[in-house]
Automatic annotation (TrEMBL), chain A:
A GO CC term attached to the entry: cytoplasm
Protein name: GTP-binding protein
CDD domains in UniProt: Era_like (cd00880)
Biological process terms in GO annotation: tRNA methylation; tRNA wobble uridine modification
InterPro entries linked to this entry: GTP-bd, P-loop_NTPase, Small_GTP-bd
Automatic annotation (TrEMBL), chain B:
Lineage top rank: taxon: Archaea
Protein name: DUF2073 domain-containing protein
InterPro entries from the UniProt entry: OapB-like (IPR012017)
Species of the source: Methanosarcina barkeri str. Wiesmoor
């Protein structure tokens, strides 16, 4: 990004803050199977209603293959209410091999179909980076955080001067270690949660309001 | 003789290319089976574009994508760097075909990779 583009981004950010732009659009990013859709569903359950979900989840990677947007979610924290548009994006990856789906029990044709849809999903997720006001980056706290996907998403937010909140998910698992994520990216706020069990969600909403409110 | 070509690309060479030219060059070379080590590395926007274009190039049984690793950017701590969010460009990026390059370990200061000849 050149100096003029940086100036435009900074000016746009200041302008939005001055005029209290409503309904910031926040993307939920991360590698496949980090728990992005589980977190999205948890947000909807907590603030919209138990009957609405953002998408289905499964242990097979790339279950989410199209971005889904839910507008105007009102989140209350410490007496203040913020309104956010949330976009649940397909998992970012640098490689997709249909053989991996076959190993999960899918047929050859089904695996190739999912592989094709997954590649289109990643392209869609990358394109969304241009239209967001901030990102929630979901990482699996049982995995090494130094992945290219994490580095790319964080780099993009820093280059665009947009806010970022890191979620260290899956803290309910015995080998979870969210402190490794904090040490890896100390320049950004991080919240340890289990989106599946609902652990740490109060801290998450507090951080959400602080970063994007 | 069967082998793997490893190209170490200087900052001077990569700097001469425009962003899209860089991304196309990398995809073309990696699809030929080469492993590239870029002295300067790519900026985050270029990395995102590379991921996007890699997805367009994936073909079953022919090309399953890339393995790419780079270090997190070191923020410019100077006064002007803080104002303009300028990032250090001195980053190194390793890119290769996903079926030949496996990352064994990566942290803030080390990338350890296994290069395999089997496709």
């Amino acid at each position: 990004m050149n100096m003029l583009e940086r100036f435009k981004v900074s000016f746009s950010k200041i302008f939005n803050k001055l005029f209290k732009k409503k309904g910031a659009c926040i993307g939920i990013y991360g590698p496949p199977n980090a728990g992005k859709t589980t977190l999205s569903n948890r947000i909807l359950k907590d603030w919209v209603g138990a009957e609405e979900t953002m998408g289905s989840v499964s242990h097979i990677a790339h279950e989410t293959r199209h971005a889904k947007r839910r507008n105007a979610i009102s989140i209350e924290n410490n007496g203040h209410t913020i309104s956010l548009d949330i976009v649940d994006t397909p998992g970012l990856a640098t490689k997709i091999d249909f053989h991996d789906f076959m190993e999960q029990g899918m047929s050859d044709s089904e695996s190739k179909k999912r592989s094709k849809e997954a590649t289109e999903g990643v392209i869609e997720a990358v394109k969304w980076l241009d239209d967001l006001d901030g990102v929630i980056l979901v990482m699996d706290s049982t995995e090494n955080p130094y992945t290219q996907v994490n580095v790319t998403v964080i780099g993009n937010m820093e280059a665009r001067s947009l806010p970022l909140l890191i979620v260290a998910n899956k803290v309910d698992l015995p080998d979870a270690d969210p402190s490794v994520i904090k040490e890896a990216f100390p320049q950004h706020p991080m919240v340890p949660v289990s989106a599946l069990e609902g652990v740490g969600m109060d801290s998450f909403y507090e951080a959400l309001a602080k970063q994007f409110g | 003789m069967q082998g793997i070509q490893l190209d170490l690309i200087s900052e001077a060479r990569i700097s001469q290319m425009a962003s899209m030219e860089k991304v196309r060059y990398i995809i073309d070379e990696v699809r030929k089976g080469k492993i590239l080590v870029l002295e300067k590395g790519l900026n985050p926007m270029e990395e995102a574009k590379l991921i996007e274009m890699t997805m367009s190039a994936i073909q079953p049984d022919v090309f399953s994508g890339i393995e790419m690793q780079s270090y997190p950017a070191n923020a410019d701590g100077s006064f002007l760097g803080k104002i303009f969010k300028r990032q250090s460009s001195k980053r190194l990026t390793v890119i290769g075909p996903a079926n030949q390059l496996k990352t064994l370990k990566k942290d803030r200061n080390l990338i350890s990779a296994l290069v395999s000849a089997s496709k």
